[in-house]
Records
---
Amino acid sequence: MDPTLPDMDIEGWFCQKCNSPLTMVKVNVTYMGASFAVDLPSCANCHTTMIPDFLAFGKMLEVEKLLEDK
């Protein structure tokens, strides 16, 4: 996991869609042509990926603003 992101303990977390346990997987996030590999909780069954609040409204928002300013 990115050392600037807090570790996520997802033990006991389940997919709301299909009730399968979540596992950490490397996901490619793309925005405005830039791609970033991030470890995120994801469902192995339906492949739904959870983006936690601290990431969506923190790091991703910072990156979005930096890319839009270029």
Note: Residues 36 and 50 are 16 Å apart (CA to CA).
---
Amino acid sequence: MNFLVTALKDIFVQGRGYEWGMGPGMMGGGYGIGWFGPIIMIAFWIAVIVGIVFLIRWLVLSTRATGHKAASEDSALEILKRRYARGEIGKEEFEEKKRDLLS
């Protein structure tokens, strides 16, 4: 218990050399950043947001590109099945073209 009281006294006594709420390292008070700090922070967050937008755009475009490829393969196979069902092509030609489409 004495240790806790001593630690709390040390914490409160160390802060007495500064005005209320101000210490070394507050805005412009010791690190030399001054008014540059907020500008750097804003630039950082703009860069993060732009990076997220480009990442989402890239993901959407890459997903869309692979989706079109799969859809065109399915539609070609569907057309082939319809032609076979109508009797426009025979079974041998259907199997040959199906193998070509799936490979």
Note: The longest helix spans residues 36-86.
---
Amino acid sequence: MNSKNLIISVYKTSISEKDLLNLKSVLDNFNKDIKWSTDLDDVENILRIESQYEIEKEIITSLQALK
């Protein structure tokens, strides 16, 4: 991934350890090259996504579909 045009999005979430498998299946299946991580030790359960493309709406839609 070229860091020159990298878009980094950081989200406050309500995900938990039990949600990680579903989250992984959704985010790993994106057609675009993304890199993601979570920090569930943070009080805001952070989800961090790096991409070279504007994918915020796609991410939010996909994650809302998990509910």
Note: The longest helix spans residues 56-64.
---
Amino acid sequence: MGRAIALELAAAGQAVAAADIRAADAADTAAAVRDAGGEAVEVVMDVTELRSVVDGVRQVSDQLGLVDVAVNNAGWDELRPFVETDEAFWTRVVDINFMGCLRVTHAVLPGMVERGFGRVVNVASDAGRVGSSLESVYSGAKGGVIAFTKTIARETARSGVTANTVCPGPTRTPMLEGMAGEGEQGAKLIDALERAVPMRRLGEPEDVAVAVAFFASERAGFITGQTLSVSGGLTMA
């Protein structure tokens, strides 16, 4: 999903920094952007470590200039009933999905406010809007992202900064495939998700990317504090 977002932003004329905890994946994404004719650098960043985030943002600023658009897309989860989880699991889910968003936003927002322009686009999940079985902690963390984004939108509305949230529904990504598992059981879960979506298919990373790129664009300058589901009609409220 992050790679699709990077490619979509580059196609809109943005210079892109591909930040990833995995150096090889960051390099592959940046290379894909450059191969498509865009400008990109790779940055190794662990959103669970404040120093890593601060250093990463500084590296981006040194190589590409000050950050005008920040997309918080890092995420992780495993399918577990809440009663079978423990505090270590809660901490990891919240640290990646919620605290990571806070760390990155805190690192880039002051500069946006000072310059009078910025776009913060946070990728949450429809699980954070309506809940999702076996994803209790993840749903809570993504719900936190939605509420946090609305508050940032209010606090920066007079500073030329917008903050919006994109909420994917079930989307065909490596994380979903890993959560579903291999074999017949995994295939059944994917099939059930497809049948639950009114459009009868999973989302693709590119479906999410166009929504992110819209919120990041000049065309969305009067839109802030909004939550947009990209779910094929799975949720409509």
Note: The radius of gyration is 17 Å.
